[in-house]
Amino acid sequence: MVKANETPEEKRLRRLLKKEAKERKRKERMGWDNDYLHYTNTDNPFGDGNLLATFVWNKKLDKEGLAGVSHNELEIRNRQKQEENRRELEKVKKRRLERELERQKREEEMALMQRSKEAAQFQEWERQEDQFHLEQARLRSRIRIQDGRAKPIDLLAKYISAEEEVDAVEMHEPYTYLNGLTIKDLEDLIEDIKVYKELERGKNLDYWNDITVIVEDELHKLRKLERQSAYEVAVGRREGIHQSVAKDVAAIFKGKTSAQLEALQLQIETKIIGKPEGVDIGYWESLLSQLKAHMARARLRDRHQENLRRKLEVLKAQQGVAAAVAEQAEREKETQSDTESSTSSPSEEENIQD
């Protein structure tokens, strides 16, 4: 209660006395004499009657024109100034914190940019490495083709590379290179296709996917033949379709474009989902499984024909340009011959008169 009701002067005096008591105890522990322990305003060797009073900078007050201001007003001004200093200090701390946050943000942005740059550089290295391995694989393929020991992947890769070259023309569809391959050849071909798909990074993906579908279908057929029992061979059944209707099935798919096969696939799926009575579901499911490979062949066939058509148009255009250039050169030659003839005729007349 005393502390709560005391004035600022009383509070300052109480703290000063407490400070003096602590200082006195410290000096006593250090062995000071009693002559120096009990300085007061009236009893001190300095002759200072205001030794324990609050220091007031009177010359500064005179310079600021505050010499006649009361003590209370000075206290109010000091508190206001302290409050201003406190607010200014808060602003300084806030600005320092903002600068620190900005610096931290810049460092994070720089670190992010550096990571992005390193990631882009790493991707470029990966791309260059994949391109190098792809070129090496193509080189090995060319060497094997020149030596007459080409693998199926070499011929397939040569076909897709020839699409970008006008002078290189492949006359046969790419799936014809799969004829006569064994199970081991087809299994190796699937692994080789995976390598090419990975190295090319999505380029020619549709082409390799269609080739993969056809290879897997051929591999499935060969494995099915290996596992066929004697009874199945005797009854002549193969993949749910009797041998007697196998030719009819082949005729259904033969000569159809990819769009027509897609429409056929939709019809078969609708028939299977409906499950009408008296319909052999196993037959239509087997037909649908074979349709996938036929659609891949149709897409490759359409692609092959479009490629040939495009190259033929380019060659025709090149031949037309060459013919136009040759015709223009012939006309210029004839014009030059006529000019030379007209220039030489007066001299001949002079020779005749002479």
Automatic annotation (TrEMBL):
<dbReference type="InterPro" id="IPR018816">
    <property type="entry name" value="Cactin_central"/>
</dbReference>
<protein>
    <recommendedName>
        <fullName>Splicing factor cactin central domain-containing protein</fullName>
    </recommendedName>
</protein>
<dbReference type="Pfam" id="PF10312">
    <property type="entry name" value="Cactin_mid"/>
</dbReference>
<keyword id="KW-0175">Coiled coil</keyword>
<feature type="domain" description="Splicing factor cactin central">
    <location>
        <begin position="115"/>
        <end position="304"/>
    </location>
</feature>
<feature type="coiled-coil region">
    <location>
        <begin position="71"/>
        <end position="114"/>
    </location>
</feature>
<feature type="region of interest" description="Disordered">
    <location>
        <begin position="323"/>
        <end position="354"/>
    </location>
</feature>
